[in-house]
Amino acid sequence: MPITIEDTLQWLRQLAQACQENRDYLTQLDSTIGDADHGINMDRGFKVVVEKVHAQTESDIGSLLKLVGTTLVSTVGGASGPLYGTAFLRAGVALSGKRELDESDYLALLEAAVEGIQARGKARQGEKTMLDALVPALAAAKAAQAAQLNLAQIARRASEAAEEGMKATIPLVATKGRASYLGERSAGHQDPGATSSWLILKSLAEVCARSSNT
Fold first, then answer.
1. Under CATH, to which class is 3-212 assigned?
2. Alpha carbons 119 and 133: distance in angstroms, whole number
């Protein structure tokens, strides 16, 4: 089953709830290697996103995602606002005019988001950032599509790969962002950005799973 505009709205509502439920956890992770505000920022940002999209009159998913992007840029502090904002903006451009998303559209969304974060953050996988969750997720999604799996299965594989990538940040030494100031002391801690990236894909995978069962 394809993802509809209503499914997309449900994803954003569910993601906002996940950010609220994990606010303290994300902040705790960020307190060891960052500014101790990632959970606070993500919770605040996606609360505003839900308010904006609830009042939106956008007629396609691409426009909706662009609205999410501009909202995050203006409301989320630190590096996460510009990075996630760029990710959603790029995804919105890639899906311009789309009212439903199929397997190839999911790949286009994720690929555009990853490319946007790479361009904005000048980072790559292995530097203890959100890309350590998102790049493996994209690779898993491509492999799942090549195996001709359906949308819900592709989204689940991507979410699982993001979770593995998130956990794999624990032993890494950060070379980007605020955590890089700690040098070797950043090792042994899970990256908060990779964790919130997993929450984003996990929420989407759950919506895809429900949609496929209706």
1. mainly alpha
2. 16
